[in-house]
Every structure is written in C-alpha cells, then in structure tokens.
Amino acid sequence: MALILIFLVLAVSAVIGISFLYRMRLEVKAVTSYLDSRKADYLAQAGVERAIATLNNDTNEYDDLYEEWAQGFEELLGEGRYSLVPSADERESEKKGDEKVGIFDEASKINLNMAGAGNCNQGWTPYEINLSQLEGLGQEKAEAILKYRYGPDGAPGIRGEDDDKDASILESDGIDNDADESIDEPGEGIDEPDEFRPDAPFGDDNPFETVEEIRLVAGIGEKTLNE
User: Fold this and answer.
1) Are the beta carbons of 192 and 156 closer than 8 angstroms?
2) Where are the beta strands (DSSP E) in 96-148?
3) DSSP-derived 3-state class of residue 116
4) 46 pLDDT more than 60
5) Would you state the pLDDT for residue 219?
6) pLDDT level of residue 94 (50, 70, 90 thresholds)
7) Residues annotated as region Disordered (predicted)?
C-alpha cells in the first residue's frame, strides 16, 4: 500500500513538474515575442525618423535614383517576379549587424486609377500616361481597364454631367485640358478623365482598391498580372 502511495505521489509530482515547465516555456515564448515586437516597433519608428531626416536634407529641386535617399536598396524587376536586395554599401553594413533603412519613390510608379489609354501626351496630367504601352497589356486591355474603372455607363463620373463643375472654365482657358489635341471645344470638362476621383468617386465609377483587383478586368488574369 505504501509503495502504491509513493508511486501516486511521484506521478502527481511529475505531472505538476511537467505542467510547470510547460507553463514556464509558454511564458518565456510570450516574453520573447513581446520583446521582439517592441524592438521591431522602435526600429520601425527609428527608420521613419531617419527617412524623414534624409528627405528634409534633400534640398535638390529634382529627384533621381542616384541621390542618397535612393541608395538603401536595389529593386530587381523581371517577368513575373520582384526582388529586393541591399545595395553594396548596405551589404557591408549588414555584415556588421546593423539595421537597414531604404526609401522608395512610390509616387513614380504608374497609378492604375490615374493612367489612361490615349495617344496624346503633353505632360499635363497622369491620365496622359498610356497603359497600352506597358509590356503585356496593349490597347485592348488598356481600354478594358478604363471600362472597369468607369463603371457601367463607360464614362468618368456620371455620363453627360459636369461632375466637378469646371466645364465653364475649361471651355475658355485656352488650354487642351483633356489632351485630345483640341482647345476649348464645347463640352470640354464633361466626361473627361479628370472627373474620375478614386478617393471620392462620382456616379458608378469603380476605382481599384488593390493592384490584385486588376485580375477582375475582362481579358486580364493571373498571367497578365504577373507580367
């Protein structure tokens, strides 16, 4: 009987010990995870502050990829792939265990909600950028993107309406505002690309929320997206 009691005590002690060790292991993991998250948070904040300081010190009237702010990382583009690697200087820094900071000019990338499919380009607005010139698209797919963007009525905003109330100005300002090679024609400013407002769309306009949404456009699927 005594031997059985001893075994029971040992079994209970073993269960308690294992439970304690398991709980301690979970607590160690929780503490480690918390410390890592705090470290990542402070590193991210430090990176943002360093980026702000770098841009504040950029006094040039122009931007190019040879300036200091653009030297942190190298972007490698290829068909169906995208890679990001540290620059040569940053790789040396990486060997020392230093953290890396990089700044990317997102504004220089083509905006699916702004680019168009026209042939006239006067450097006036982003919608003069012709999507059909991109490899893998072409005129038909570019027009399909606009059709998806403009909704069932096929026009920016509400068809036939001066959604942004600027037609009276654009019809008499002596500028080819809609880049159609005609100046101050009747109706200039109505059903024009500038009436497509992604942040506050008029009528049945349907701006892209993500790049991946382009797969929903007729004639464009996974293959075109990856290209």
Assistant:
1) yes
2) none
3) strand
4) yes
5) 82
6) low
7) 151-207
Please list, in sequence order, all residues whose beta carbon lies within 8 angstroms of the beta carbon of residue 46, skipping any fewer than 6 positions away: 99
Mean pLDDT, the chain, rounded, equals 78
Q: CB 176: neighbour CB atoms within 10 A?
A: 17
138 pLDDT tier (thresholds 50, 70, 90): confident
Q: Say how far apart CA 20 and CA 27 lie, in whole Å.
A: 10
Cβ-based neighbour number of residue 67 at 10 Å: 15
112: tokens are 């699916």
Which has the closest alpha carbon to 193: 108, 135, 127?
Answer: 127
Please tell me the number of Cα atoms within 13 Å of 193 on its side-chain side. 22
Pairwise CA distance, residues 129 & 133, whole Å: 9
User: Please, which pLDDT band fits residue 85 given cuts at 50, 70 and 90?
Assistant: low
Q: Which of 125, 93, 98 is nearest to 192 (CA)?
A: 125
SS3 7: helix
Q: What residue spans define the domains of the chain?
A: 10-57, 61-108, 126-226
Q: Which amino acid is at 40?
A: A
Residues in the chain, how many? 227
Whose tokens are 């480690």? That residue is 32
CA distance 41 to 36: 8
